[in-house]
Amino acid sequence: MLNSSQPPAPASAIETDQARAAADARGLRVAIISDAAPERNGVGTYYRDLAEHLKAVGAKVELISPRFRTGRWYGGLAMPMPGDPTQRFLIPQPRLISRRLKRLDPNAIIIATPGPYGMLGLILARRYGARLVVGFHTHFERLAALNNHWRLFGVLAQTYLNTCHRALFKASHLVLANSDEMLDVARSIGASKVGLMGTPIPKHFLDVPVNPLRPQIKQVLFAGRLAPEKNLGAVVEAAQALPQLQFQIAGDGPLRDWVQHEAARLSNLEYVGWVRRQEILPLIDRADLLVLPSTIESFGTIALEAMARGRLVVVSSQCGILSWDHLNRALFQMRDDETLSSTLMRVCALDQGILERKASLGREAAREINDRNLRHWVSVLRDQDPQGLEQYEAD
Question: Which keywords appear in this protein's UniProt record, sorted alphabetically (predicted)?
Answer without folding.
Answer: Transferase
